[in-house]
Each structure stands twice: as C-alpha cells, then as structure tokens.
Amino acid sequence: MSVVEIPDGSPFGVENLPYGIFSVDDGRPRVGTRLGDTVIDLSVVLADPVFAAASLNPFMAQGPARWAQVRERLTQLVAGDLPDTALHPAADVRLHLPVEVADYVDFYASEHHASNLGRLFRPDAEPLMPNWKHLPVGYHGRAGTVVVSGTDIVRPCGQRKAPDEPAPSFGPSRRLDIEAELGFLVGVGSPLGDRIGVDEFARHVFGAVLVNDWSARDIQAWEYVPLGPHLGKSFATSISPWVVPLAALEAARVPLPGQDPQPLEYLRGGQDWGLDIEFVVEWNGEQVSRPPYREMYWSPAQMLAHMTVNGASARTGDLFASGTISGPDRHQRGAFIELTWGGKEPVVVKGEERTFLLDGDEVTLSATAPGPNGTRIGFGEVSGTIRPAKENRAQPPG
Amino acid sequence: MSVVEIPDGSPFGVENLPYGIFSVDDGRPRVGTRLGDTVIDLSVVLADPVFAAASLNPFMAQGPARWAQVRERLTQLVAGDLPDTALHPAADVRLHLPVEVADYVDFYASEHHASNLGRLFRPDAEPLMPNWKHLPVGYHGRAGTVVVSGTDIVRPCGQRKAPDEPAPSFGPSRRLDIEAELGFLVGVGSPLGDRIGVDEFARHVFGAVLVNDWSARDIQAWEYVPLGPHLGKSFATSISPWVVPLAALEAARVPLPGQDPQPLEYLRGGQDWGLDIEFVVEWNGEQVSRPPYREMYWSPAQMLAHMTVNGASARTGDLFASGTISGPDRHQRGAFIELTWGGKEPVVVKGEERTFLLDGDEVTLSATAPGPNGTRIGFGEVSGTIRPAKENRAQPPG
C-alpha cells in the first residue's frame, strides 16, 4: 500500500480527478484517474464493472448521482493508502480514446472567431451572418475520425481551388490549420421527441476535453457552400485523453460576456456556464497563442439546449465542441488562419516565419482553470504531428 | 418443413433476398430475409452467430466474399423445404432498425434537386454553386436520429424567420417536408489515412435502403449559413427496414446521364453505378411523385470515393445517402418544396390543396428496380406519420 505523492502545483491535484482509459503492458484498456504523476487503476480500487470497460461510456451512462458518489469516494480514497497494483507512473501507461463517440457536433460560439473567419472567407460581406447572435450555429462532424492525443495526422488530400485558379486541382492541402476548442461529453442522453432544457446541462453532461479540430482551409473554402464543411474537417479531430468532470469546473464558472439581443426563451438561462479556462497553443514547442474560453459568446448549456430543441435525441457518448476559441487580441486567436490573417501575416516559430502547418510540425493544446482554494485544474494536453500526404495509393489486393 | 410460396409479381422474389432485423412475440431481434409474404429467420437456417445479432453490422463486417457465399446458400435453401420454425408471415413480425448507424453523410447528387433548391433558397444567384459539378457535395447528418420505417415523426420546434419578419420566433415548423433518397450501407470500412478507390465500391458497400430525410425548411433556411443544415434535418431520418444487397441490383445498373466537365481523376470510374430505380412518393395514400434514380448526376461509387479521399476512415454501419432524387419533370420531384415550388403551387391530395405536411399526414416512399429475367426487385417502403409538436415541455423531476 502507498500514498500517492502530488508534486507542488500539479494540475492533477485532488481537486481534479479526471477520468481516462489507459493500458499498461498487458494491453487491457480500463478506466483510470490521474493524480500528480500517477495513474490510479479504478478497476482495482472501485468495485463496479464499468471501470473495467474499454471506454467511459458505461460509467457516463450511470448519471449524475452516481458521478457525484464516485467522485466523493475517490476523494476519500486518494487521501489514504492505495494498493500498489492500482498505481502506475503516468509516463508508463498508454492512453486511449476515452469514449466511444456517438454523434459529434461542432459549434461556432466565439464571436471573435466567427467574425474573423467571416472577414477571411467572405471579404465583401458582413462578417457575422444574421442568425449568429440568435442561435449557436453548429453542424455535425465525423464521429468516426475523433482520435486521441498523440495520433499522427496525415495531411489530407482533396480538391482545392484558389480564387485566381480557373478550376480545382487535386492534391495535399496547402493550408492545413488547427482549431483550439473545448469539447463536452454527454453522459445521460434524452429520448427522440424530447429536449434538454437550458438549465439541465449538469444532469446530462459528464465532463470536458480539449479538442483540436484540424482543418484544411483550402479544401474547406472550395467545398463548403451550401451544405457546410465536410472533407476539410472530417479527416481527423483530436481530443485529450483525460475527461475533466463537470464537478471539477465549479470554481471556473463565470457569467458569459453578455448577449445582445436577448436570446429566445429556450436559450435563456445557462448564461452562468461561461468557463474561465485558459488555453495555450504551442507550435513545435513554442507558445503562439493563449485563447481565453471566458470570451465565448454562447455557453455549452445553450449549445446542448439548442441541439435538442427540435426533438433530436442525445446519446451517451455524444461529443459537442465549442468551435475555435478566439479572444479579441491577436495572441488570443485559436486558429492559424486567424493568427496569420489568412497567411498574410506570418508568425515566427523557432526563428522561422510560418503560416500554415508543414509536414513534421507538432501542435499541442493545453489548458488550465481555477480550482477551489486558489488551486489550478489541468486538462493535460492534446497533441498531434503532421505526417506527409499519401498522394498516390497502390490498389489493394483484390 | 414447408416450401415458401411466392405470389406472382412479388417484389420479394428469389432474385431479391434482402436482409433485415425482425422480432416476433418473443421480442428477440435477429436477422431475417423476406421471400414473398414470408420472413425467414436466418438464425435458424444458417449456422453463424452473426444472424442471431440484433443488427446487421456483424454480418456486414464479414465482407463481400462472405456476402456472396451467404446469398448463394440462401438461393439454394429457399428453393427447397424450410423448417416451419424459421417461417413467419410478414404481417406478424415487427421490423427494427436494421443497422447500428456509425456515421451518416447526406449528399446532394441530383442536378435537378440542387438547381431547384438553389432557385428557391437563393433566388438572386446562380442556382448551382461553382463546386457542384466538380465534387459530390455532402455533409454529415445525425446518426442517432436515424429511425426505422413506421416511427412517428414529431413535428420539430425551432427558430424560424421568414424573409419579411424582423426577428426569428420559436415554434413548430410551418414548412415540414420530405426528401426521397436512396441510402447505402458500408459493410467493410477503411482505416484512417487510407481511402476507398472509385472502383472499389462493391468491396465495401453491403446494400441499399430507402431514406426519407425529413426536413423543416423554415428552420433550415434560417440556420444553414455558413455551416450547413443542422436542426432543420437532425430531428429524424427514416430508413426502410429491408436492406437490398448490392448483388440484387446488378440488373439495375445503368451509366450515369453524363458528367461535364470530366471530374478529377479520383472520381473517374464508378460512372457505371447509375441505378435504374423508380421511386414512388405517396402522401396520405395518394401518389404525388415518381422520382427516377437513374437521373442522378453523381454515382454512389463516386460519393464513397470522395468521402474518404481525405483519409477519413469508413466504418461498418456508415450510412451515406444520395440526397433528394428529382427528375426533370414536376411529377418527378422528390421533395414537396420543389413539387409545390416553395409552397406557391399546391398539389391536390385527396381532393385538398396541400403544400407542406400537416399533423396526421402520412408519407410513404417505395421503390422498385429491374431484376434478372424481366423480374422486379422491391425495396419495400419507408413510411412515417406526422405527430403534433411538443411546444411546451414540463420540467422533468430533478
């Protein structure tokens, strides 16, 4: 039996206790939490088969009363001796995709981001569409290509057409970008024909992860009218391995910056689910941006209420993400297309002028939030390295 | 032991042999096929646990060699005596959603439909976007709200704003519509970073179903810029319970009507996957349209090649649909917004002038295709009845 030591200032203190799926040499994925630099095997310390599952979905489906009970029990357990068979150095475990993603919806909830993208994609029009301040605009992404941090990102090929080119050409994306986002995981869904009220957020949402919604801007710009982004986004979306429970984010809650006009009734309330989370974007190890989540216009409670107000069911494992987090200042922009203003204003990364991603580049997003008593809660990180495109493809054997 | 009798002209002859999931009084869903007016329990006549599963996914994942083998064996079996325990009158079984849908992508592959919608949604612009003849435009829909034929459709609520209204209002959709489509089910997927060639369609796709992509046009028109349709579509998508295997559609294959300009190389080939399938749209039992699938501009082989050309993985259970099937003539339009030209040219249904769907309305899509030796293959039908919106919602108990 041992007591887990927590380094001073660790973002994984006793106030955090995130959930993830890990394996060691035996290759058997199961549920763990992280405390300091240690991963605790919950299938050893808690007597419930949901913690032996290869995804968090069974535990997430148990609902908020059970989530609170487990969190309380864990808080007690980690204060005392734990069996050595349950403890693994964080550096020794492999972290897996924490959830089986059901549906994935990506929102567009930062006014600064939506305005910047509007100026870049539609320079001759109003940057914000007329609907933008009335509803949280969002669309469905590809659930099957949500991958865990550390998964290599193969540069996508596709159709690209610059405005001055007469016809599209096929090839690797020349404007490969990131989007720094926060993602929310639905634990308890809702049946078809019903809806989730804006004040019911915490009864349904289990926790949050970091999201990098990799984006091929040239593919996206050519394809996206009139049905929205498709192949410019669907090749990969990376998420962080540790799911921070909503309960750990209580001290991070702040009011939204303010909504004008007042939204329709089904979107009133939930304005107290702004979150004071500080993101850091690192490009090849150099910090290039610090997007502030507290600047987001729409709250995640409003996103979930909107997503289901038409009677669409929600399921355990649904992932919905905020859209790119961008603040008012240049160094707060969460996508490189904004940071470099469409590639026209390069940033300096390790002494080189850079615009979009090159093969071999690595991008890491991390984030922290206030915890109780002056502590900080960490989300860990979501990271990915760009691998060269596979332009030519051998026909597989018949 | 009995021989199954097949009524003359049945669309479920020995050339069809579709797969579905059924249950009887015991409530245990398993795999069956339909022959004439009889459902044959494949978990009884074939010795493979995949046929005792509650979805077709395990069988679909076995791949094309196995699909061919099972089809050949079934063809032999149904020519002889079958055990009575395997036989159920079609009228006595309950049909379930045949697949666990992984990702759902909806295309927009009819030139007539895309042109009509362009004229209706963007009257002051070119009806077809510049990208439309270069790539099969598509977007992700909500997989979790794909339902089986017979499921009631609750009229969705949402934000609607007519062009002459100063602000959006919340309420039940006033322009509830259908989209008659053909859907394709992926049996064998492809890994992340790889892609499926345009000539590899039949190695990956298991079969086809009828799709009714219910659409709330007022919600859609207000929300869809710039990220595409979301709540106007996500409340429900109905599919037919019987999956017609690709092998049953060989006699229905026709060349596409023609593509100009010639598409990029990754979309060349697959032009021999046009399909001569005749749809019938019935509104409260009255035939209002006969959309011809052979008029589609893009083939399903091209859709699948496009969907994965960026390295997006495909999974067993992925559903991709054609988009509304509309021919050049008015009586061939597969959506009521086209058939009634935005509601301005009502159609007569059972003696009443009608534009969009009213509560209590029932819509049924059916379709047939040429089979071998002058026979016809039937898809059966996909049907749904509109139920009143739930405008006010009691707060559930805490």
TrEMBL record, chains A, B:
It comes from the Bacteria. Residues 388-398 have a biased composition (Basic and acidic residues). Gene3D superfamilies: Fumarylacetoacetase, N-terminal domain (2.30.30.230), Fumarylacetoacetase-like, C-terminal domain (3.90.850.10). It is an enzyme of class 3 (hydrolase). Pfam families: FAA_hydrolase, FAA_hydrolase_N. Its cofactor is Mg(2+); Ca(2+). Pathway: Amino-acid degradation; L-phenylalanine degradation; acetoacetate and fumarate from L-phenylalanine: step 6/6. Transmembrane segments: none annotated. Keywords: Calcium, Hydrolase, Magnesium, Metal-binding, Phenylalanine catabolism, Tyrosine catabolism. Residues 105-380 form the Fumarylacetoacetase-like C-terminal domain. Residues 367-398 are annotated as: Disordered. SUPFAM superfamilies: FAH, Fumarylacetoacetate hydrolase, FAH, N-terminal domain. InterPro entries: Fumarylacetoacetase, Fumarylacetoacetase-like_C, Fumarylacetoacetase_C_sf, Fumarylacetoacetase_N, Fumarylacetoacetase_N_sf. GO terms for molecular function: fumarylacetoacetase activity. Residues 15-98 form the Fumarylacetoacetase N-terminal domain. Its EC number is 3.7.1.2. This is fumarylacetoacetase.
